[in-house]
Amino acid sequence: MRTTSAIPVARRVGGFNYAIRNIVAEARKVEASGRPVRYLNIGDPIIFGFETPPHMVEAVARAMRDGRNGYVPSAGIPAARESVARELSGRGMPVSADRVIITSGTSEGIELALTALVDAGDEVLIPAPTYPLYTAVLAKIGARAVFYRTDHRRGWLPDPDELRRLVTRATRALVVIDPNNPTGATYPDEIRRALIDLADHHNIPLLADEVYGDLAYSGPIAPMASLHPDAPVISFSSVSKAYLAPGWRAGWMAVGRTERLDEVLAGIKKLADGRLCSPGPMQYAVSAALDGDRSHEATFRAALRERAQVTTTRLNAIEGMSVVAPAAAFYAMPKVELPDGATDEEYVLGLLRATGVLCVYGSGFGAAPQDGFFRVVFLAPPPELSTIYDEVARFTGEFLARR
Ligand SMILES: Cc1ncc(COP(=O)(O)O)c(C=O)c1O
Fold first, then answer.
1. Between vectors from CA 216 to CA 56 and to CA 336, what angle results, nearest 5°?
2. Is the pTM of this model over 0.90?
3. CATH code assigned at 36
4. Which residues lie closer than 8 Å to 18 by C-beta, 6 or more apart?
5. 301 and 153 in one domain?
6. What is the residue with the minimal CA distance to atom 14 of ligand 1?
7. Are residues 174 and 119 both part of a single domain?
8. Does the CB atom of residue 105 touch ligand 1 within 6 A?
9. Is the domain of 187 the same as that of 206?
10. Using alpha carbons only, what angle is made at residue 22 by residues 16 and 28, rounded to the nearest 5 degrees?
11. Domain boundary among 262, 291, 320
12. Per-residue model confidence as pLDDT tens digits over 360-398
């Protein structure tokens, strides 16, 4: 019998949420009503006029022109793997090229590592608030995200004592995002050391998301594994942020030198075989980025520092709002003192509809909806940020008075 009822999707889709892009549907409705939208929801420097370094563009274009358009080895082209190994070793994480895998951005590395490490029902320690890819991938695997708090009253730092209490026999990985998205925090060495010691002591792989490592305003931060090269650490990064090429989907992961991770490395390589390879020509950007001219980085960091300052000063001046000054990257996580019963999503959607400014509500990153957090991407030029913050101030005053 023929039926035309809606075809169901798998249950796992219900648990897979990525607020940074999901919220765009609301913005499109606002645009359709005639109000232009300023997209401060996604951390893409290219949208705001920052440019990919020309020598990286040339390396990729040359690869294509030279006919490097076929499949490449699933772990990546040797030159890119060697550049990553040299870069990390030079910065204190001794690792050989055969422990490096070239991936479609940090994102694919994270997904491959979690898939290789975690079974349904297992637990993974995730910061709250978090970059939402982690919870989304765990939902797909059917594993449990166990949140450890980072506290805005303590500069968004985690508490190693709380983390120790959260470790159980089902814990399969500890995720550390430093520098952090969405908070813009960087962790001092004593916290980093405590986290790495915990991973070492409990034999839990530490997944170090270091995609913003070069974007601390005070200068590049050493990879976490440099504090303890024999701890079970897997480091992730890409050309997306510090090297201004997010659309190329070129990234890498480096599996720490300890033999404890040998089987995990083999598992990751096995999974990587199944997706053939990450895009070949883009892999030529990796050596260009890591071995070539990096003068753009200092300029980019200075631009970010200036924008962070405008953001902190302007948002902290708004009655009922506070924000911790970011120390890296291009995100800040302000807090509005919401009246009883209001949620962060209500505030953010209200802001979007009234002003066309699109941010992401804190609960999209795992914050409690009533806590009133939202994330701002501050890549726009300072004069534009200033206009945006005028509107945020006006709307916030109205929102809080109305309630
Ligand atoms: C903390 C964090 N990890 C990973 C990613 C994904 O980056 P990529 O473009 O390298 O996949 C992002 C992107 O915003 C991020 O903020």
1. 120
2. yes
3. 3.90.1150.10
4. 132, 133, 136
5. no
6. 43
7. yes
8. yes
9. yes
10. 160
11. 291
12. 999 999 999 999 999 999 999 999 999 999 999 999 999
